[in-house]
Write a structure and sequence with these properties.
Component of the F(0) channel, it forms part of the peripheral stalk, linking F(1) to F(0). It is found in: Cell membrane; Endomembrane system. It is a single-pass membrane protein. This is ATP synthase subunit b. The chain is mainly alpha-helical and 175 residues long. The protein has one domain (15-174). The chain is 95% helix and 0% strand. It has helices spanning 2-12, 16-149, 154-174. Helix 2 (16-149) packs antiparallel against helix 3 (154-174). The radius of gyration is 66 Å and the shape is rod-shaped. The relative contact order is 0.03.
Length: 175
């Protein structure tokens, strides 16, 4: 039992020298990690956090700009609709004015043609009346010359006048 006791006690005894050595190594390793790895890792993490924050800010700015652009486009679209409506309204007014001018000109021309026709009819009527007057005057002269050259009875005079009137009617039909 003696050897077993010694081995058991040795096995269960703490080796303070090894423990101290491992503790010093651990502290040196932590110091080296802090000096060489912790700073760059922290710096990398800070850079990544800043980049993410900047990306979020940029995305928010882009979203706001997109919203502003959408509002501007909507306003421009509304303005173009208003302008298109105004152009259509002006075109309608111009069309209506052109129609009124054309109708007014047509009425003026029709009135002018009507006046010209009335004047032509009046002139033709005047010419016809003058022709009839001349024919009546000639007839009257012929009748008077025949009456003077021959003393006729009432029946003979009536027959002579009737024959001249028939001759006058035949002359007008020929003209």
């Amino acid at each position: 039992m003696g050897t077993d006791f010694i081995l058991g006690a040795v096995a269960t005894s703490v080796k303070w020298g090894d423990m101290l050595f491992y503790l010093v190594l651990f502290i040196v390793l932590l110091a080296l990690l802090k000096h060489f790895a912790w700073g760059p890792v922290n710096e990398m993490m800070d850079k990544r956090a800043n980049k993410i924050a900047n990306d979020i800010d940029s995305a928010e700015d882009a979203r706001q700009k997109a919203e502003e652009l959408a509002v501007k486009r909507q306003d421009a679209l509304k303005a173009s609709h208003v302008e298109a409506s105004q152009i259509i309204e002006r075109a309608k007014k111009n069309g209506e004015q052109q129609k009124n001018i054309i109708v007014e000109n047509a009425h003026s021309e029709a009135q002018s043609f009507k006046e010209t026709a009335k004047q032509d009819i009046a002139r033709e009527r005047q010419d016809a009346l003058e022709g009839v007057k001349n024919d009546v005057a000639e007839l009257s002269l012929e009748i008077a010359s025949k009456v003077i050259s021959k003393n006729l009875q009432f029946d003979d005079q009536k027959a002579l006048i009737d024959s001249y009137i028939e001759g006058l009617g035949k002359q007008n039909e020929v003209k």
